[in-house]
Predict the structure.
Amino acid sequence: MAKITYVHPDGTSSVVDVEPGNSIMRGAKLAGVEGILAQCGGGATCGTCHIYVDRDNTKPLPAMHDLEDGLLCVTASPRQDNSRLSCQIPVSEELDGLVVHLPEKQL
Amino acid sequence: MTDGAIVIVGAGQAGCQAAVSLRERGHRGTITLIGDEGALPYQRPPLTKAYLQGDIGFGDLVFRQETYYTEHDITLVLDDPVVSVDRAARSVTLRSGRAVGYENLVLATGSRPRPIPGAHTIRTVADADSARPQGHVVAIGAGFIGLEYAAVASEAGCDVTVIEAQPRALARVLSEETAAHVVQVHRRRGVKFLFNAMVSEVREGEVVLADGTVLPADVVVAGIGVVPNVELAQEAGLTVDDGIVVDPWLRTSDPAVFAIGDCARFHHGAEQVRLECVQNAVDQGSTVAAVITGSAEPHGQVPWFWSDQYAMKVQIAGVTTGHDRAVVTGDPISGAFSVFCFSGDRLLGVESVNKPVDHVLARRLLAANCPIRPEMVAVPGFDLRTAA
């Protein structure tokens, strides 16, 4: 299990034990963390699982492909240089302790 | 605001969303979510895509882990469907004989595939498990289900034939332009199509067509549409007309009873429609929770749909049925394009193939009622970003 912390826009956070293999998005959905919609179910086609990776993160994350890059240009909350689609980041033991921030809105 | 007991009949996408949204909105009363399958509530779309392909397992389909329901005080009743509703007593009776009382009842009974004797249909995880593609595969119906199944079967190395009664594929849901591209992608993979073809019989190991043609078939899957599950509502005396009829707040003819998802017939613009898609299930699930917890917002989201076939992602924003003009943007030859569908000058919807950004922007445009006209889209270099 890897502990992932989802920080809500109001500053409160949800800490979830995510099974390796699941994405950051799935981890949130399974536990019912509000603020990640993932309307398309995880195919990088809707841009509603947008997160901001904590700026102090030093853990290795997978490179971004074109689809994700394109969708991040049209997310409901503005893109920042630490924006990612959480469906595109698989959780591994290596990511234990990762902190991600949820945007104000996904739609 | 009411904090009375809520009973939700049907634990699919719509019913599960209603339960989750009720708690998110602070509903304090009991919530009983009742399903007819034995498994935790799960997503159905991957059943003809990644799940059928074997890329993901059942654990990847469930909406929420089991502890979510206990932690959020949602009583999940599985494998024990509701068999009757007593509206006077405000109570439902389950197959096991147990009765559950309600202040508000939400019918999310879904739909069931139209059957063809001898052919598989795919609605549940058990259906998908029993219809794994092998050898000669015949898909009856060139709609999303038939074509998604054909794509997985073709990728698995099967010999695949799609039989369609209409002269073209996806006639009910997609423009000719987009449908022609989808068929071309399938043909390149060796999938055969028989249009204007009627099945007369599915036999052991073969399918017989009305013109006498016999096709070898190890697996036959029918995707020829669904019928809404309205029987419970009908027997309870609610108004039913190819779906349980609801008002803009998703109330049935009994104000204590709501209907959502595939089984509900609701107002969409000037028409009454039923939509069989995830978006509608999710949006109506959240709307019904909002209405029950005291919000007056009627249901009115922009519909959208998707289908994954091979590496091709087809996404539709709006309902393009009945359009009389289609304008193509992007590059169909490279396989990434969008089709803007108009009725006169009015944009009905946008179909995107491998253009998810267009899809996201199109949904936003439609929601904002932006006046996009055909001649604007037809200008070379038209960019949705500037319009949205």
User: Anything to note?
Assistant: Chain A touches chain B at residues 22, 26, 29-32, 34, 39-41, 43-47, 67, 70-71, 73-74 (CB under 8 Å). Strands of chain A lie at 2-7, 13-18, 50-53, 83-85, 98-101. The longest strand of chain A covers residues 2-7. Chain A has one domain: 2-101.
